[in-house]
Amino acid sequence: MEGYCRLQVKKEMGPLFVLIGRNSNRLYIFIMRRGIYMPEINVLLVEDDPIWQSGISHYISKESDMKIIGVVDTANEALLQFQHADVVLMDINLTGNNLDGIQIAAEMIRIKPVKIIMLTVLTEKEIILEAFSAGAIHYMSKTNYKQLPAIIRSIMHDHMPIKVLLQDYARLMANDLLKDLTPAEREIFELLQQGYSQKTIGQMLFKAESTVKNQISQILKKLNVRSTKQALKKFERLKIRQ
Hints:
Blueprint: E1 6-13, E2 16-23, E3 26-33, E4 41-46, H1 50-61, E5 66-72, H2 75-81, E6 87-91, H3 100-111, E7 115-120, H4 125-133, E8 138-141, H5 148-156, H6 162-177, H7 183-193, H8 198-205, H9 209-223, H10 228-236
Parallel strand pairs: 4-5, 4-6, 6-7, 7-8
Antiparallel strand pairs: 1-2, 2-3
């Protein structure tokens, strides 16, 4: 083609579209297919079982538009590598039955927005909802791994209307978690979330440190946890993910 040619989309036909271009007295027509020029989707697999590591990574690697950028089996490795990923495939249980995959997912999204698909053999409703509340946008059984390419492409195009419902659910769960706290206790809990110490909170609210300590004890009791750290982590899992 000689010289400059301005192209315009003339007609769309599902995955195909027609580009019309003019140059001097010539008319150029191109029929293009959507998606063929999409950049590679970088996928990080977080899985501790060698069999699933090999099977899932091999299957994803066969897709021309996807690339496995890493296969890791620990939280530290996952947190180091996920920032280069578009999608993270996260095993819900990395160590025993601790559901630590959910905790890692929450930590990842706190650091940087990333699309997380939880992989598991568990089907308990509460665990599934907890995974979504932590920020995962899909949840599937490992035995259905052949569906992963289609699911990955779908979430990369934000075809996930369930996400809005999950955000509403997470908001309700967070409110329910704190519903028994008094306004004064909520105020203290919010300051704890911001990283303030008991002493500093007392100074900010003009309260004796012993008073703040007693109110924190009541907060822990109502949240059914033993420490401030556990309380914050419990709420972090339910925090709204944008």
